[in-house]
Design brief:
The longest helix is centred in the C-terminal third of the chain and has 30 residues, at 621-650. The protein has 27 helices and ten strands. It has a four-stranded antiparallel sheet with strand order 2-3-10-9, with no helix packed on it. The chain has a four-stranded antiparallel sheet with strand order 4-5-8-7, with no helix packed on it. By secondary structure, it is an alpha+beta fold. β7 (76-80) and β8 (83-87) form a beta hairpin.
């Protein structure tokens, strides 16, 4: 007896000698707990008051369980040595199984337990150690075995060195031997083959914790969101919308005045199915919902309402070969640099949506593909929207106009004054201004009205920018620069319109900057154009204010140096011109060099060469002098040749 007891306790000491982390995960329809136990560890799941209990020969760490799951299924969780207590307040049941790797998995699922589930039996706690009583009369000894020769329990190893649990196990074994249900042998028999598992127990990998080769992942290693978690088309009902909403909201609270998480989740999904993003978002924020589901549903609601995203749950999901690719593309106005988007998966998901949802999301998805320069995908979205739609909506017309880049359709939407007339006006104006085409006065007036309508809203800044540039395109630069205070980001494009189309009067009014002004915020090509126009008007000093200065000018592009040299020639500052064009070749540089030398007049060759900044000659004073004379002669010959060529061309 002592041999088998000691061997059994040694076999369980491996589990008691370490702490096992309890992991958790939330899945559609169930909540999962898992723990990796040492090989051979015994465990048993059964009913206790308020839920279920897991008896296991291990110390369990539950500190990280609620980081990944909510409390809608697992309301409470407690752990004591040898026991895990699961508090279940919902209409749920728990099943368990063990994988080949020794991972014990507990699944908490909604609804009643399957008939005959072995886990519904009460979990009988270990019997407490009995108080010392007089030893009972020994039972008849088995043949060949002297029961009375067994040392009394008081002298056993458990009393002196083992904890109370081991002592209780010894007493249970002794009691079992006395009743004939435990066979005492001199050695531990080989472990028998496992009996057939009950129906609720299965052998295999635990989904959600162990790798699933069929589950797609992102390049960063994130698991792609499963299709059923974004299956918005399947979240509808055959009932009328008003009746279904009333029925769903009536089921929120149970008879114990506690919110039913499953009913709340159904209502949120139904709102999303209808396209009611704001209602779904408000409901998800008002009731306890699993945080992972809440983040995903809020992202989908923001897409339905064309709102910016507030989380990164859909980030990198566009690379998934799954339905979530469509939602990820809808969530990102521009693709993530370096990310390969699964356009085909997105189109498959979109095509499978019901008609009302295709009409709702189609224009937005077409705009996303148009921004990605994927006209073919945008056209396929339009065709999917038109499939099954009896009468084209304003959204469909808008999507068609964007996909076909048809200004006529956009103008028709603006004139119609429908729900998408504002977006059509913005798209039409932006297209024409980007093509450097002027807007007609009627469009500019409509932009002013739309800006007033959206005052204080999210879209006011974009409309204000288009209005400023529209005024500039019609030549009303006074009004355009006056409106610049409401759209400061329009400044670079406004300077470009002035440089290209502004008259001399507008140029003198707006491009002549105060002395000492900072370099304006405009593209280099625009600055050079304005500087040359001012130089042509005889305004060299204002022209130089549009160019780089000091050391930055010395390191600037040749075109900017030439523009500065033209202004300096006009100021008769030849000594500043020659360093600017030193080393440059070409007709423009040569003409400026000649003009500068003519301004210098009778300057000696050595001085002229020094101004041109030739490379220093090696050697002593005499060698350097000879090099300077040689360079001066060469420069004079080149100048004379240029002058002769100019005279011949003039004749």
């Amino acid at each position: 007896m002592r041999g088998i007891c000691l061997a059994f306790l040694l076999s369980t000491s491996a589990a008691w000698g370490q702490t096992v982390q309890v992991r958790s995960g939330e899945h559609p329809g169930f909540t999962r707990l898992a723990m990796d136990l040492p090989a051979g560890t015994e465990w048993r799941l059964g009913r206790i008051e308020g839920g279920y209990g897991l008896a296991v020969d291990a110390t369990l760490d539950i500190s990280r369980v609620y980081r990944l799951i909510g409390r809608q299924r697992l309301a409470r969780l407690g752990a004591v040595p040898g026991r895990l207590n699961l508090g279940i307040d919902c209409a749920c049941h728990v099943t368990a199984f063990e994988t080949k790797r020794g991972t014990v998995v507990l699944d908490i699922r909604g609804g009643a337990a399957p008939a005959g589930s072995q886990f519904e039996a009460p979990l009988v706690p270990p019997a407490p150690a009995p108080a010392p009583v007089a030893a009972p009369a020994p039972p008849p000894a088995a043949p060949g075995y002297d029961w009375q020769a067994l040392p009394p329990p008081a002298a056993s190893l458990a009393e002196t060195t083992l904890d109370p649990l081991r002592e209780a196990l010894l007493r249970k074994l002794a009691d079992g031997a006395a009743r004939g249900v435990v066979d005492i042998v001199d050695r531990i028999p080989p472990r028998p083959e496992p009996a057939p598992m009950p129906e609720q127990v299965r052998i295999g990998e635990a989904p959600g914790f162990l790798p699933d080769p069929a589950q797609p992942i992102t390049p960063e290693g994130r698991a792609c969101i499963a299709n059923d978690r974004v299956a918005i088309g399947a979240w509808g009902s055959d009932l009328p919308a008003a009746e279904e909403i009333a029925r769903a909201r009536a089921a929120f609270v149970t008879e114990f005045d506690q919110p039913d998480p499953e009913a709340v989740a159904r209502a949120v999904r139904y709102y999303l199915h209808l396209g009611f993003g704001a209602e779904a978002r408000q409901l998800a924020e008002s009731f306890p919902i699993n945080p992972h589901d809440r983040a995903l549903w809020e992202a989908m609601a923001n897409i339905l309402d064309a709102r910016p995203q507030t989380s990164d749950i859909l980030a990198t999901m566009a690379s998934c070969d799954a339905d979530v690719a469509m939602w990820a593309i809808l969530a990102a106005p521009a693709p993530t640099p370096g990310e390969v988007e699964q356009t085909e998966a997105a189109l498959r998901s979109f095509s499978a949506l019901p008609v009302h949802m295709r009409q709702h999301l189609g224009p937005q998805l077409a705009e996303r593909f148009a921004a990605r320069k994927d006209a073919n995908a945008a056209l396929m979205v339009r065709e999917a929207v038109e499939r099954g739609a009896t009468v084209p909506t304003d959204d469909t017309r808008m999507m068609t106009a964007l996909a076909q880049q048809d200004d006529a359709h956009l103008k028709a939407l603006v004139a119609k004054g429908g729900t998408r007339s504002g977006e059509a006006l913005i798209a039409l104006s932006a297209r024409r201004l980007e093509a450097r085409e002027p807007l007609d006065p009627g469009t500019v007036t409509a932009l002013a009205a739309l800006r007033h309508e959206r005052r204080g809203g999210e879209g006011e800044a974009a409309v204000a920018r288009l209005h400023v540039l529209g005024l500039a395109s019609t030549g009303d630069f006074a009004a355009a620069f006056s409106g610049l205070r409401n759209a400061p980001d329009a400044a670079p494009a406004l300077w470009d319109w002035l440089a290209r189309t502004g008259g001399d009067g507008a140029l003198l009014t707006h491009a002549v900057l105060p002395e000492g002004s900072a370099l304006p915020d405009a593209p280099a090509a625009t600055r050079l154009m304005l500087a040359d126009r001012l130089t042509g008007l005889g305004l060299a000093a204002p022209a130089l204010l549009w160019l780089e200065r000091g050391e930055r000018l010395a390191a600037a592009a040749p075109e900017e140096k030439l523009a500065a040299a033209r202004a300096r020639i006009q100021q008769r500052d030849a000594r500043a011109v020659l360093p600017l064009i030193a080393g440059m070749e070409g007709e423009a540089a040569d003409a400026l060099r000649i003009a500068a030398l003519e301004q210098l007049g009778t300057a000696p060759p050595a001085e002229t060469t020094a101004i041109a900044a030739p490379p220093p000659a090696e050697g002593g004073v005499l060698a350097r002098g000879r090099a300077m004379v040689s360079d001066a002669a060469d420069a004079r010959a080149r100048i004379e040749a240029l002058l002769q060529g100019t005279e011949l061309s003039a004749r």
